[in-house]
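Please, structure for the following, as tokens.
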Amino acid sequence: MNTHSYTISAEQRNELETLITNGDRVGFYIALHNMTGSEAALDMAEIASSSGLRGGTAWALNSAYADVLDGYPAGGVTAFSIAIAASALDSIEARPDGTYEVPSDIRTYENAKAAWNAVGGRSGVPDLGDKYFPGNIMIAQHHMLQGNPSDAWQAAGMESYIATGAGAGLLFWEALTEIAADGYNHTASLNDFLRQNAGTTVETFTSAHDAHLTVIKDAAGKTIGVVRGDGPLGIAGQFVEGMSSLLRPYADALNALGRWIGQTLPIPHAVDLAVNTQYKSSRI
């Protein structure tokens, strides 16, 4: 993840605020990426819309959290997602020259964790994000790559390891549900979804920073889904992409932490290679 901040204009800041005010948190993240090139913004767009294996797995993990964790907001995953998006807008700070500073990608993740702590704190659990924010392991990986193992260890406590295991299991469950239920990730189901929901639209375009996006909006113009790539991927492609983007960073970060403390952890290895070898011939 990059460590440099981004600059946007006052007009762009107002555009982002309008999207949040109108309840379009997914559109907010897509617009933020288009303005800055932030990959973290695209991550958040997928998570906020439960799109693809990455977003679907994160949403499923949060749904499980909502039932068992003290401090999780009463409104469930949707309410929490809205709170995270609002905090992302608040993190964009005015500069003396009239422009606005958007946090770096690593700060975007750290700010999301802080939002978890803030929400949990209102229910007497001020360390909710420190313990259970699913992105903690990504923050840990960043610190390891920067040569700061102690910071990485602090970022990924034992609860984060548990979340990692839960996320890995939910990834496989989400892969199964993609076949039967997900209307955003392969062409046939997407067409069915459009036919069954009058006024829903789909647009495929290349962002200002060369990301190929497929965006789905409801009849009111609210963004409800986003998929990265040249178009919606088939199940094999989604599975490979999900395994590579979700499990491989976890495996790398945990292995690095294990080496730092002198212990090789019993986690999946060579995930990306194994999955690509298994599913390469059937990618759509």
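The beta strands are 6-8, 93-94, 100-102, 201-206, 212-217, 223-228. Residues 6-282 form one domain.
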